[in-house]
UniProtKB/TrEMBL annotation, chains A, B:
GO terms for molecular function: hydrolase activity. The keyword Cell division does not apply. It is an enzyme of class 3 (hydrolase). This is NUDIX hydrolase. It comes from Psychrobacter namhaensis.
């Protein structure tokens, strides 16, 4: 059972008159509760030859490594969201953001937008949602302990593009689809 | 006053313990109601030398011209959303989608994603949310009667890029910010 946000009455799932998709609708005040995909904003933070990863202190995927990323908030741009998450999860101030990866994950109603950024002054810490944060070279990336497929693909693309392009602002935008089984197994 | 979706109790706006932004929180069942930006998916549908516009039969901006576009739904990709909207608003089957424009509109909590597509077999009609649909050459675009700034910018970019690139799949992705006064005046 679900209730109406507007009036508190019991709501029902039905297709509104002007629509073709079932929605949660209130039979009392007629308010329609739309549910739409959510946007994740994240940052691939680069410093010299290394990239910044955070070890998750929260579920899902507790203990695995990820990029600083989280749900976009109202009132911010995607780049601002990526910068905010970098600070919250790794106390990293990031500069020169460029949109880098954009993933559709329709099975869970999400879009991932990852910005390529640079770490200001090489400074970072450990945010409250992280067990640890560290800069990794390509050789040291913990590939068997990456939290999400979107993170793995972003890292793969980055190390490939780095062979081909001599500055971050020349990196192309990668757009891709991620299916249902998007997270790797935890070890 | 707002009510809890989960239990129907009166909800209150406060900052949850593990958060730093005010949310609608239920004091009874502790459910947190997150509100996040919404994604608009749209299509710049090209056929030969012309582009497809729809005259809006709904508010806001009733009577003005727009691209087929609307809120992205759960379970679809951005490109699928752009194709769905093209069919709903203009009975247009579109092929060869490429992400073309991506706009942050933080003041209204929206992201606009516009795909460059091609009209299959040149066929289209008039969807239920449109008063009219038509293919326009650059000279015939009704610039003084365009519904939204995102639509205007997309059209401007398209006619500029067309001078420079000889096929649609070479067009670059344009990313931009649109401020508060995003709609033009209605005539």
């Amino acid at each position: 059972m679900r209730y109406c946000l507007q009036c508190g009455h019991e709501a029902e799932r039905k297709i509104p008159a002007t629509d073709n998709i079932p929605r949660l609708v209130c039979p009392n005040c007629h308010y329609i509760h739309y549910e739409n995909p959510k946007v994740i904003c994240g940052s691939l933070v680069v410093h010299k030859n290394r990239v910044l990863l955070c070890r998750r202190a929260i579920e899902p995927q507790y203990g695995l490594w990820t990029l600083p990323a989280g749900f976009m908030e109202n009132g911010e741009t995607m780049a601002e969201g990526a910068a905010r998450e970098s600070y919250e999860e790794a106390e990293a101030v990031v500069i020169n953001p460029h949109l880098y990866c954009l993933y559709d994950i329709p099975d869970i109603g999400q879009i991932y937008s990852i910005y390529l950024t640079e770490l200001k002054d090489g400074a970072y810490g450990i945010g409250s949602e992280s067990l640890d944060c560290a800069l990794f070279t390509e050789e040291d990336i913990p590939w068997n302990n990456i939290a999400f497929e979107a993170v793995r693909r972003t890292l793969k693309s980055y190390f490939e593009d780095r062979q081909q392009f001599d500055s971050l602002d020349k990196f192309p935008i990668h757009q891709d689809y991620i299916g249902k089984d998007q997270s790797i197994k935890r070890y």
